[in-house]
Amino acid sequence: MPKLTKAQLSAVEAKNRNILISAAAGSGKTHTLTQRLIKGITDGRHEVSRLCVVTFTRAAAAELKRRIHSALEEAVLKAEGDRETINRLTRQINDLPGARISTIDSFCRSLLQSNFEALGLAAGVRLSDENEAAMIREAAMEQTLDELSESDGEGYPAFGFFGGFNRFIDLYARDRDDRAAAEFIRLYIKLSGYPDGKALLLKSADAMEEAAENGFKGSVWDKELKAYIKDTAEYYAKIYGEALFRLGNDESDPYYKKYHDAFNDCGDAAAGLWELCDDPKTEIADIYSYVSEIKLAAIKSSRVPEPDDFLEWCKDKKKELNDFFKKDYFAAFGYPEEDIRAQLRMNAAVIRGLSAVMDAFSKRLVAEKTRRGVLDFSDLSRLTLKLLYGDDGNFDTPIDAARDIAARYDGIYIDEYQDVNEIQDLIFRAVGAGGRFMVGDIKQSIYRFRGAEPDIFASYRNEWKDGDEDSESRGIFMRENFRCSENIIRFTNKVCGGIFRNGSGRLGYLDEDDLIFASGSENDTKVKLRIFCSKADKTETEDSESDSSDDGENMSSREAEAAYIADEIRRLIEVEKVSPGDIAILFRSGDSGTDEYIKAIESAGIPTFYSGGGGFFDTPEIQLVRCLLNTIDDPGRDIYLVGAMRSPLYGFNLNELLMIRRGRFAPEDLSSGRYYPFEWSVRRFVSSVNEAPDAEEREISLAQRCVDFFSDIDRWREMSEAMPVDELLFRIYREMGILDLRGSESDEELAEASAARRANLMKLYEKARSFEDGAFRGLYSFVNYLEKVLAEADEREAAPEKEDSVQLMTVHKSKGLEFPVVFFVNADKMMNSSDSRAALLLDLGDNDNLGAVMRVPDENNLVLFETPMYRAASLRINARSIDEEMRVLYVALTRAKERLYITAGTKKSPSRVWGFEHEAEFLSPAAIKSSSTFLSWILLALGREYSNYCDLEIFPPQISDGASTDTPVEAVPPLPTAEISEEAVSMYMKLFEKRFSFKYPYESTARLPSKLSVSKLYPGVLDNEESFDMLPELSAGAAAAKTAARPKFIVGETSPTGADIGTATHLFMQFCDFDNVEAAGVEAETERLVQNRFIPEHTAALADKAAIKRFFESDIYREMRASDYLRREMRFNIDLPAAPFTQDEELKRQLENEQILTQGVIDSFFENPDGSYTILDYKTDRVKPGDGETVLKLQHSTQLNYYGAALERISGKKVAKLLLWSFALNKTVEITKEEI
């Protein structure tokens, strides 16, 4: 690109303080950025030492430095004779190695290194890698949850709504603490991308409480739901309006008779729903009532002269419309207003609980990082933000330190600005006070899953698009594409222009976003679109309205697609002489069935290289070392043990392993039904051979090899206890000659393959060295570290690239690359919508954000219900995911220079695929949202004009003729089989019979609950499974609900019961401050608890304040306060023998050695003058004078005695008294102490 375009020249010469370059794919953004930098340097406006250029990869930073260096050297040659200019440019070249041209992380790190003291950081702090950071987060979260559980959230008022942290976690995690920890960490990472994520979280809670107070109607959730339903209803109303128009008014027409009534119903129903949503007075309950009464007439069975494609398509759309009316999210609209307000209050309380967990976790994580002397990558940007703006939460104006840093630079240049997040944007605003030059393309922002916020780029673009040379800030569009052929550009503009303009609107697609052909390529090959169907078309007699489902995938469509790709690539290579290295196959994601495509291509004799997934870990040499390390760490892991024994290092074959497993057992030993680890089998085999006088020579030899194997393993394990893992690994390499292992390659391939193997092994060694420099050390931790890396493997862990091979990669991996030939495959794969169905949905940052929203549980915490708020948030997040997928499609289409193929295997029949011609007539946001594949979007945008933009072929199901591929595949020899005697066959038959008829002997113990509450213990508790449900109630009271499965906290909104009053009274006693009660009284303390969110206001109002006052006037209260040691709300967990809690003798026998984890909370206990303890438990039972004391003793004696036993075990002190305080009787009741 020797000559700059008009747009590029404007970008190079613009004098505006802030410049935003919208650089479309292939428009030469790196060239333009380089030219602007060079011009500033050669003109004398910039010094290299005063430049700050930020890219998003180290490779891009290195390439930019290389280009600047070359351009400066060329400028020196042109300045021949001008000594002053030569000297100045030479000085710039010399300064270039130290120039601030780096990634955002490196830039932040450099700022922090010169300000460690100001930020309170230790001088020796280091940066952890992502996997080490993940391990630290997991350890810190485990400690956080343990501490919160032990204290029951003491010090965090937000848990008061639930009655403590443990009830909160039971509600949120639903007995899945491991899942809760992972979700909390994900939440923390997401919030870390915002300048003040905690404030946004609490703002969301405030918004929900405000909506609970003012009503759901008019709220952001209400608007989101109505907008979506309105768009969808309008889409169907237009379809059936057109259908009715085409049918006309001739009632004698056979088409009219067949379709009119059904289509008229569809049109009326959709139009009515649109009008309802358009009315601002409409409540969502009105929508629910309207939809629940819709019943669409069936299409009549009368015959027509011949099928009409459009009417048949409308018939299919009728089923789709009917499904829309039956969508389960409409069920969420059926809650009465008071129920929705209760849901809002519950959701707000959960958010405040989550905020408290984040607060506790953040403190623990900072302490853990400080102890280990590490920072992670998110700390770099957050600490830089603190350095530039201070820590008061005001991000409007940078502090003096930021102005000092900004003064160091003549300008700030940032590449890939579409991928920044809010924190990074604030950093660049602060250090770029003298001006920012930002380059990016919102259509290529495909990293939202990593925290990128494309809305930031979009807002600048919209704000500055009308700027000119005299404006402070200006936007410039670079549209000329120097990469793609004209046909590829026409196709891309048609497809992306159609779908982007009908997306959520956040992108703001403009005419300037269309590409302009500028490469000058004379290639006139059209884009090829190939669709392979797994279903054949049905005849009219076979078809029916009820049989219009596309369920059931026939994988032959995928096989046909892969076969076509392989044949076409072979044709390109053999006929058109295209090099394999010039061909790329792109997938949306790494789980798109890559193996099928690789197999088909390699069967055609074409080399491939897949640069995604965990290729490095899949190489044989790394798998071998992983097997060894895992076996050394724990030989009880059968898969790794067998892998190590089968490896070339030890050479055990399948027959030998079978012999070891069978050993010298008698048939009855083998048929015992028990499973033994393979390690046990090996050691048992060796022992039995050594003891057998008749052992055969092959058995003796095999046993000796087993001894030698475990001698190595045991020796290395002993070394691992004191030796760093990198030293251990290299010792194993050296002892076993692993670096010199040879594979199955030919002599010609040996040198290259050996070098690749050695490179992989040394890469693993370097990982071990880096690991030992980190916070975790030792073999056990390193093995776990490798498993974590493997589980999260991405393109960064790919194996070394093979030369001149067809490249297979994800679209994300391809960004920034270009290829002469591109196949975008599996285009009919369903898009991933899991983000919109997560347990916790987050929509933060915007003024109209929907906040943090979750499903709510039923009264038994077994079923989660989707509230209107959850549905609204799900729709919003799904819309953003759709925007992201559109951008992924744009990136995929713009990688090809000369030829672009799009292929798809679909579940549909050819006629159903051709239905896109009708669908395209109604292209709209609703049509885009209802489509879930790239193929459907492409066809929607092309419509009937498809032949002007691509070469389309739709193939019916392909029938395999069973013929072999052109390249013969070498036959695989059968595995060797061991000779098995009739006696052995008989023995195995008995073994199989015994195993298949096996019944778990401890089936009854499987019914044991994981934990029980002391308050529910009684002698027969294990005989009644209903007693196992120890889940907390969210509020007191149980009135009849409108629907059977309504959440209990909603039901609790009815008139209060005695239980409600008792619960409220107990909550006051749990959270009240005794000093405050004595100083200001019960009423004032109640107000404080409500104000600080310990107790909800409606709950506090129910507390029996008169009874509470009498307690504070009692003798027992004065005795408590006089004690030197008083403890309240002590949570405990103890193991108790299980057998005493069943009256079933058989079960009691089986549970003889079993324990049950029992938990409880002691309301209060205090120390007596003699050092013993007195337990005092509050009881709000509505008993009457007379027999009330006896009733209380009968009901609570067991509970109090277990409290006493637990306290004695925990404290080591005697419990002298067990007391109840009855609020109903206004007195203490002493419980007789019994032996537990």
Structure description:
The chain has 1236 residues and is of the alpha/beta class. It has five domains: 224 residues, 3-Layer(aba) Sandwich (Rossmann fold), CATH 3.40.50.300; 115 residues; 221 residues, P-loop containing nucleotide triphosphate hydrolases (Rossmann fold, 3-Layer(aba) Sandwich), CATH 3.40.50; 177 residues, PCRA, domain 4 (Orthogonal Bundle); 200 residues, Lambda Exonuclease, Chain A (Alpha-Beta Complex), CATH 3.90.320. It is built from 48 helices and 27 strands. The strands form seven sheets. The protein has a seven-stranded parallel beta sheet. Helix 18 links the parallel strand 6 and strand 7. The radius of gyration is 36 Å and the shape is globular. About 6% of the residues have low confidence.
Number of domains: 5
Overall pLDDT confidence: 84
Largest sheet: 7 strands, parallel
What is the CATH superfamily label of the largest domain? P-loop containing nucleotide triphosphate hydrolases
Query: Which segments are poorly predicted (pLDDT under 50) over 5 or more consecutive residues?
Result: 540-555, 666-673, 794-800, 961-979, 1025-1053
Q: Report the top-level CATH class of the largest domain.
A: Alpha Beta
Fraction of helical residues: 40-55%
Give the CATH architecture of the largest domain. 3-Layer(aba) Sandwich
Report Rg.
36 Å
- Helix/strand/pairing category: alpha/beta
CATH fold topology of the largest domain: Rossmann fold
Distance between the termini: 88 Å
The share of residues in extended strands comes to 5-15%
Shape: globular
Number of helices: 48
Beta strands, count: 27
